[in-house]
Design goal:
By secondary structure, the chain is an alpha+beta fold. The chain has 26 helices and 26 strands. It is globular.
Amino acid sequence: MKTYRFTSGIPSEAEIKKIFKSWTDKEPQEFFPVEALKDLGFQRKKCKNCGRFFWEHPSRAKDVCGDTNCEGGYSFIGKAREENIRFTDIWKRFNSLFEKKGYTAIKRYPVVARWNPTTEFTIASITDFQPYVTSGEMPPPANPLIVPQICLRFGDIDNVGITGRHYTGFTMIGQHAFFPKEEFNQDKYFRDYFEWFIEGMNLRKEEIVIHEDSWGGGGNFGACLEFFSGGLEIGNQVYPSHKITKEGLEEMEIKVLDMGMGQERCLWFLLGTGSSYDSVMPEVLKYLHDKANFNLSIKDEMIINKFLPYSGLLCKDETENPQQLFDKIANSIDIRANELRSIIEPWSALNAIAEHSRSLLYAIADGALPSNQGGGYNLRAVFRRAMSFIEKFRWEQIDLTDLAEIHARTLSDEYPELLENIDTVKKILNVEKEKYYASSEKRDNLIKRIVNDVKKGVKITTDDLIKYYDSFGIAPSIIDEKLKEQGISIEIPENFFSRISKLHESDKINDESSTKKQIELNIPDLSPTEKLYLNDYLNLEFEAKVIWTNGQYVVLDKTGFYPTSGGQLHDEGRLVDSTGKEYIINDVFKYEKIIVHRIKNQESLLKEGTNVKGFIDKNIRIQLSQHHTAAHIINGAARRVLGEHVWQAGAAKYPDKARLDITHYASLSESEAEEIERIANDVINENRKINKYFLQRGDAEKRFGFRIYQGGAVPEIELRIVEIENFDVEACGGTHLNSTSEAKLIKLIKSTKIQDGIVRIEFVAGNSAVELAEHEKKIVDELAKLLNCNRDEIIRRVSELFDKWKSVRKALKKGQAIDESLLYLTSKEALKLDDTKILRRSSEILSTQPEQIINTVSRFLNDLEDAKNMINDKNGE
């Protein structure tokens, strides 16, 4: 097998494809099932248009490769091969055929790829198995297998609706196998898939054209065969053979089969409808056409039917000038371009709304949220694009929540979980809609300003259009429409929405950044440090051997010190050598698989090979463990209160307090925060056992699903599972209590919306919570004494004090007489609240911080007393 060395960094995917093409063009037998192709009667040819190699049956006898552009459009449209077949029937048929061939069907993975460190969304069925199955480090869930994997991709967003075949969310039927080289049967896998076209789709050999190509993703690259018919690529079979490293292309440890086929395209091809949307989502399109009152005349229908075979040519990333090509298509079907555009634009917009509503359903049902960050921004871009079409064509009757429910019902026999989560999906879509319309007045005013600026000669650049959309949600089509009313036209980039999507690809949620430590040390190649803290958080003493030192930094063969990671701050303590000399440890951090200890204020005199004893600070360890376990409890409680869309987005645990960031579309209400705290403390009082054990990654996923990945992808084959019995299960390497009762108490301090879609919950637990409760009780007792009232009367008494103090101040300022009733506090109204709420509400009334309440109340009371003395002095005169 070939290898390749990079000379200056990792090249782009396009450059790697060139490398592979140079290999496959010269030696196809090294990469493709050439013998199987020849045995089926196929011959290798080179396309006279694009120059790529392809395979065809001699009875086809063409010099072009069958690609949409080389073929001149779609030739299958209007030629139905079947009639009574639905979208979900395709998977059932495929499943039936391949199970007979020895493949095992598995359930799809979520579209949010939390297990995979290489991607945010599941972009292909092979994403399910990257990087650990494809690397050979862990076994697949079955072998060989098939899967109906829902995928999300946002690079083609501008093509959705117009080409008839593009989607942001789609089902990729996957055929996969993972075997050592000597057991990998490429010919069999190829023949199995080829038989799908013959038996499953009733194609003849001469109707199938097979391209040679290559494909990469998730750090892997390999040769690829693409299967075309009637100008449509229906699926491809990839043979990943190399992994991409910093040094170059290296052969993978195992051989992999990666076939991916669009379930939508199979149905479209069989039904031969004008677009794939007509085949895949007819119920949704009927709803849309009814609500939009989109009734085509016979003439317009004829025009669309003439246009449809050419629609696939309008892929905006495959043609240099889509506008010019559109005009050419109009000319070829004998219609003016403007007239064709006036018919096609609303038609393609309805297609896009249908498709986008399904992608939003897929993503939100699997726990993603639209936002202004990372992958969530792509979802918001999809939502805004759909809403911009609704706004542009004045289709206010269209409701995306209705569309999501129709999709969920029609897909329920293949994906029942979509319907199970539909209430949450509809709630989140409604929140997005409220946000969209809440900013409509601001958008309208900005559009008016833009129009006035352009009328004055100001030019609008592409960067301006991106800024208007990115910051204010103004689609370029809306600006264009308003300018056309003034007789002005602007140029909108054909790939506008894909550029918007790429703009936020590098956004990442700031997860636990405050507790991560990085430092460059020249550490030699050492064995991984044995982690003793994983066994029991109360193991506070240990013996170890020094294996490396450098100044203040020490590495042991094993350690009980927890390093800063996973949002949890490091342990503190000391090391003691055989002479009794102590070394204070005030920092511990990870360096790859090594744990490094930092000695406080001195260089280490420890030598390699020295035996030492370690002593962990008990109070810090217990408090950090209480906070870490409490974070898991709060996360589980928040999910029960707010919904299944709640995931951990970040965390930090310190000795004095902690915080948990969760995904949620709105700020927490007071009642929601109270309910989360109540459930969390119920879990503590129930004294649930906390089990900690290791499972192989695949076994853990089978047993608990992907909820275990709360803090993101865990880069280990063997996962440490922290299970709070019948409540919460997570993959976690932190120090944890042995039972929930050891957390003692959880108190939520406050919650804030730190960014769109992320809520931060600050809290204390364990000893810190008990200390805070005692501190709050002390302040409340002092308040009651100051105000001369019972605890339950404090809120009303504070409110009375503030109102009377303001009135007295106002009277004094104006030189008016003071009503003596203002100088005495008489309220006896009781309001039964706990200490935390008493302090929170009192501080809100007084517009001060809780720690300043006593000083503020004392000052107000003193002011009233001064006013009383002033009146008495006047009366005495």
